[in-house]
Write a structure and sequence with these properties.
The complex is a heterodimer of chains A (175) and B (105).
Chain A lengths: L1 H21 L3 H21 L3 H26 L9 H25 L19 H8 L4 H23 L2 H4 L6
Helix pairs in contact in A: 1-2, 2-3
Chain B lengths: L8 H21 L3 H25 L4 H31 L13
Classes of the chains: A mainly alpha (175), B mainly alpha (105).
């Protein structure tokens, strides 16, 4: 059962990722990315990372993608038109580098790893949120606190940059 | 097609590699800064998938904690990045990265 679900979610994830980079309309790309993130959450569930699956849907598919869609709407973008020899060359080079990377990665990763999970979770253990919380507040307490500072700095920075105003305008060249 | 009872670890890792490569190609091929940002998100998520895979197959939760931190950094990165893109759009009326070439000599 689990391998079938894996193949399904994996196909969905790869298809959605391809649609993200192939589609001309940014809004459609963003919606495909949401679907891709949801299928990734499904893969997390198969890997018994329930907490991360929920966080994936709430934070990524919810918050981050809403931010993306809001900015796309705000900027009122037209469909991307790409033509000319420059685009063709860049596309060829990009896909070529991608193919080389993919072959490299598959050659590296196809070896036998451990045949299966080293241990099954004990009976009656549902979810790993408690365990993650314990780890987060004991061994990873310091990084966790640093994370809060990072988020604060990002918030202040986003407000400052996004505000625009006099400081930004005066940096325009030729004025 | 015969499927094994347990999904081998290499399947997850190869899937992660495929998604990562799609993200790389997206960054290289597209010229819309928003799509490039989405491709960066794809790459971050591919790394997350590898983290969770190793956490599961080594029976250790540390990988999942790392994914938690990566998500936090990704959220911060998106907030700042989108603010920068909005600002660039205000200045140059475009989000296409090949039209933003002030640093070109």
């Amino acid at each position: 059962m689990i391998p079938i679900l894996f193949v399904g979610f994996a196909a969905l994830l790869v298809g959605c990722s391809l649609m993200v980079i192939l589609h001309r309309n940014p809004v459609t790309s963003a919606l495909w990315l949401v679907l891709g993130f949801v299928s990734l959450a499904g893969l997390y569930l198969l890997l018994q990372a329930e907490f991360l699956a929920m966080v994936q849907i709430i934070v990524y598919a919810g918050a981050i993608m809403v931010l993306f869609l809001f900015v796309i709407m705000y900027l009122n973008l037209k469909r991307d038109r790409e033509e000319g020899i420059g685009h063709l060359m860049r596309r060829t080079i990009g896909w070529g580098i991608g193919a080389v990377l993919l072959v490299e990665a598959v050659l590296l990763l196809r070896h036998k790893w451990v045949p299966g999970p080293l241990a099954e979770p004990g009976e009656g253990v549902w979810g790993n949120t408690i365990a993650i919380g314990r780890l987060l507040y004991s061994r990873y307490l310091f990084p966790f606190e640093i994370t809060s500072i990072l988020l604060l700095v990002a918030m202040v920075g986003a407000v400052l940059i996004g505000r625009g105003g006099v400081g930004v305008k005066s940096e325009r060249p030729g004025e | 097609m015969n499927l094994p009872d347990v999904v081998p670890m290499s399947w997850y890792l190869i899937l992660s590699a495929i998604v990562f490569v799609i993200g790389v190609v997206g960054v290289l091929v597209r010229r819309n800064a928003l799509i490039i940002f989405m491709s960066v998100e794809l790459m971050l998520n591919a790394a997350n998938l590898a983290f969770v895979t190793f956490a599961r197959y080594l029976n250790s939760l540390d990988g999942q904690v790392f994914v938690f931190f990566v998500m936090t950094v990704a959220a911060a990165e998106v907030a700042i990045g989108l603010a920068i893109i909005v600002n660039v759009f205000r200045l140059k009326e475009t989000v296409y990265v090949d039209e933003i070439n002030l640093l070109k000599g």
